[in-house]
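Before drawing any conclusions, I looked closely at one protein, both as residues and as discrete backbone shape codes, quoted below without any editing:
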Amino acid sequence: MSAHKYELMLIANPELDEHALRKLVDQYLETVTNEKGTVDDINVWGRRKLAYEINGKTEGNYVVVNYTAEPTTSDELDRLLNLNEAIVRTKILRKDK
């Protein structure tokens, strides 16, 4: 199996301050680095209005992360993110074909 490039976009609870948001993101990115993957770029967009209401929220903290990992690591990251109630929504896209 070989590593692929991925882009993760997550929307976190708007109540989180920047420090708590960064801590939350770093916690999940350890999943990537612990499995010999690399985190290439983290782009915190901050608090934005959602296109539509999700779970009673109209705003969220947006974060975009580019990383390189095995497909199984990416699947595990997705699974873990979906278990956390502070994460409103996630999307992981494979960047290479």
Q: What stands out?
A: The mean pLDDT is 94. Strands lie at 4-12, 38-54, 57-69, 87-94. The chain has one domain: 4-9+19-89. Residues 62 and 88 are 10 Å apart (CA to CA).
